[in-house]
Amino acid sequence: MSIRVKLLSAFLAFSIIPMVLLGALIFAKARGEFQAIRIAQLETIADLKKDKIEFFFRERTSDVMSATSFRNIRQHLPVLERYAGDKGNPEYVRAWEALDDQMRQVQEAHGYLNIMLANTAGTVLYVSDARLKDRYRDKPLADRRAYEEGRERVYFTDIFRSALKERGFEMMAVAPAKDLKGNFIGEIIFEIDMEPIYALIRDTTGLGRTGEELIAKRDGDAVLYLSPIRSDPDAALKRRISFTEKKGFPAQRAVRGESGSGLAIDYSGVEVLAAWRYIPSLRWGLVTKIVASEAFAPVSHLKTVPVSLGLAIMILGIIAAVLIARSLSEPIKALRRGAERIEKGDLQCRVGSDAKDEIGHLSRAFDCMTVSLEEMTAKLTKKAAELEAANKELEGFSYSVSHDLRAPLRHMAGFAELLQKKEWSRLDETSRRYMTVIVDASKKMGRLIDDLLAFSRIGRSEMRMVSVDFTKLVGETIEELRHDTEGREVAWSVGELPDVKGDAALLSLMLANLISNALKFTRPRPRAEIELGCLRGQDENVFFVRDNGVGFDTRYSDKLFGVFQRLHRQEEFEGTGIGLANVHRIVARHGGKIWAEGTVGEGATFYFTLPGTEEAQEWQN
Questions:
Q1: If DSSP codes are grouped into helix, strand and coil, which group holds residue 132?
Q2: What's the rounded Cα separation, in Å, for the pair 82 and 534?
Q3: How many CB atoms lie within 10 A of CB 404?
Q4: Sign of CA dihedral 115, 116, 117, 118
Q5: Of 213, 492, 525, 588, which alpha carbon lies 20 to 30 A from 67's?
Q6: Contacts of residue 568, Cβ cutoff 8 Å, sequence gap at least 6
Q7: Residue 37 in contact with residue 295, Cβ under 8 Å?
Q8: Is 159 helix (H, G, I), strand (E, B) or coil?
Q9: Percentages helix, strand, coil for the chain, rounded to the nearest 5?
Q10: Which residues face 156 on adjacent strands?
Q11: Is the pLDDT of residue 7 over 60?
Q12: What CA–CA distance (Å, rounded) separates 369 from 515?
């Protein structure tokens, strides 16, 4: 063998072997760092999904707690109990209709499947959905644990199959109901559609082709899956994995109350990268995962790079290997550092590079994911702040109403009425007038409190934006107020009105307030003239309600929309001063504005803007 061949052989041995070894070392290091990045991504997504689920059920808790203060329930549930055996009794019918008016509005406004009321024994007395009346009414609540737990606090049941939606699922929120004296009279039950939660679970943005999310709970010594899984769309409430089986480890750990991440074997026996979280308020486990082969695919492609470079540039040998090591490890380190910063809450971090290889694509994809996470986090933070502020306002208000206003008012009204009934015959005319004033003033104060509570709820209710036929809605509202025009000559003029985008229930309430206002303040006129129309502009449409009533002094127009603000004496026109405040809040929640013009003795015009279909979509975005 010639020296040339020996030198060539020695060179090949001392360049290729170190290159191969160095390449293997680089690949192993890259795989470990890439795993850390993927785990950080999975943990971030899992935490976001957990926060969204908890946020969803905090809203449901808030809704149920609000319902416990409904005067309608506290007053009429005992009536349904009293006349349960005589459903044709007028008192029973009036109580049912009063509850129907409010409960159906709450059901539609918040997207609940059904609302039920049960007595102290757990027997269902009221059902808001007519399709379920025969199924539930006069029957005991099937979930007795929910009945027992719901006597003391808001309790969420386990998920079960829906009676209304084919292949649908739901759960119940149960809370105690009390009468006007604070005595336990039964329970309030909200049926919650699980589709929003399942839609959130189905959204695998950022998890790749094999990414998956699921929820499960502990069922004895096994995992019971609560949502469909990739390999079995019908797995919800059917698929079980025993704790003794060597698969489904992320779900097993999550339902046992653990939170963590790492490589594990999933329910199908495949190795996955997963993050799992326990949600104690619901007794659920949440799993976010991606098949390991897909997760490490970019790194698998990289293992050929050191070999190919070694063959192409054998002359540079170890130098080339070092350069390759740096070209591979530094971007991955940057990604890891970025992931660590993001994990600590720095969503402004960007790690993108101009490289055209897989790591460059990955870094840019990582930045896109970070932007999405930043936007999602900002929206979630904003929503959480809004909810927290609203809840604090509501809590303070509810406390004031419940403890500082309602209790003494109830005592005053109750004892005044008892005294009126017992001593009426022995009182002189002046004393009777005093007694009547006390009772009437108590009732008026009660109405003020109820109106103020309604005003508070308008600001917290969830809006369901749909296309609304405004002309039809105006016609329906006028028809509903027809009883206010009996014995009067009222000339209606309704112009051509465009469709709008908004919450139909809130818009109906807004129109009812404006039109009833016009009817009230035209009462002194022998012929009332009320006009509804729209001024079409280039940028927006301006709706108006005009009347020929008593009008108002425009110097005080800024007081019209304040709570309890009135420009006329109570003796002239009844009311609590809350109606126009409700109108202002509803218009503002739709992204519009409202103002008024008027002249004393000549009438008033209320103008307001509402977004059309396209404008509403832009405003919502």
A1: helix
A2: 50
A3: 10
A4: negative
A5: 588
A6: 521, 550, 552
A7: no
A8: coil
A9: 55, 20, 30
A10: 173
A11: no
A12: 50
d(CA 154, CA 59): 12
User: How far apart are the two ends of the chain, measured CA to CA in Å?
Assistant: 77
Domain span(s) for CATH 3.30.565.10 in the chain:
463-620
Closest C-alpha to 391, from 379, 401, 381, 399: 399
Sign of the Cα torsion 130, 80, 171, 589 reads positive
Please check whether residue 91 is in contact with residue 101, taking contact to mean a CB–CB distance below 8 angstroms.
no
Computed over every residue of the chain, the mean pLDDT equals 81
Confirm whether pTM is higher than 0.85.
no
What amino acid is encoded at 181 in this protein?
A: K
Give how far the C-alpha of residue 66 lies from the chain's centroid of Cα atoms, to the nearest Å.
15
Q: Which residue shows structure tokens 């019908």?
A: 234
Enclosing H/E stretch for 277: strand 271-279
Q: Which fold has domain 463-620?
A: Heat Shock Protein 90 (3.30.565)
- Cβ neighbours for 351, distance < 8 A, ≥ 6 positions apart: 334, 335, 337, 338, 363, 366, 367
Residue 383's pLDDT is: 83
* pLDDT tens-place string over residues 534-550: 988 777 889 999 999 88
pLDDT band at 446 (very low <50, low <70, confident <90, very high): low
DSSP state of 566: -
Where would I find the beta strands (DSSP E) of 109-195? 114-118, 124-127, 155-156, 160-161, 169-178, 184-193
Cα–Cα distance measured from residue 619 to residue 599, given in angstroms and rounded to the nearest whole number: 34
* Sequential DSSP letters for 48-107: HHHHHHHHHHHHHHHHHHHHTT-HHHHHHHHHHHHTTT-TTSHHHHHHHHHHHHHHHHHH
At the fourth CATH level, the homologous superfamily of domain 68-196 is PAS domain (3.30.450.20)
Strand segments, DSSP code E, in 477-575 are 489-494, 500-502, 527-536, 541-547
| 8 pLDDT tier (thresholds 50, 70, 90) | low
**pLDDT surpassing 60 at residue 455:** no
Which is it for the CA torsion 358, 360, 364, 370, positive or negative?
positive
Which of 172-176, 239-243, 319-323, 593-597 is least confident? 319-323
The residue with tokens 């063998």 is 1
Query: Could you tell me where in the chain the CATH 3.30.450.20 domains are found?
Result: 68-196
Q: Stretch 97-102: mean pLDDT, rounded?
A: 94
How far apart are the C-alpha atoms of 161 and 169, rounded to whole Å?
Answer: 4
Distance (Å, whole) CA 150 – CA 157: 10
CA 213 remoteness from chain centre: 20
- The answer to whether residues 513 and 481 touch, using CB atoms and an 8 Å cutoff, is no
Residue 602: count other Cβ atoms within 10 Å of its Cβ. Answer: 11
| Cα–Cα distance measured from residue 118 to residue 125, given in angstroms and rounded to the nearest whole number | 5
pLDDT at 334 exceeding the cut of 90: no
Tell me the percentage of the chain whose pLDDT exceeds 70.
Answer: 74
Paired strand residues for 494: 532
212, containing H or E segment: strand 212-218
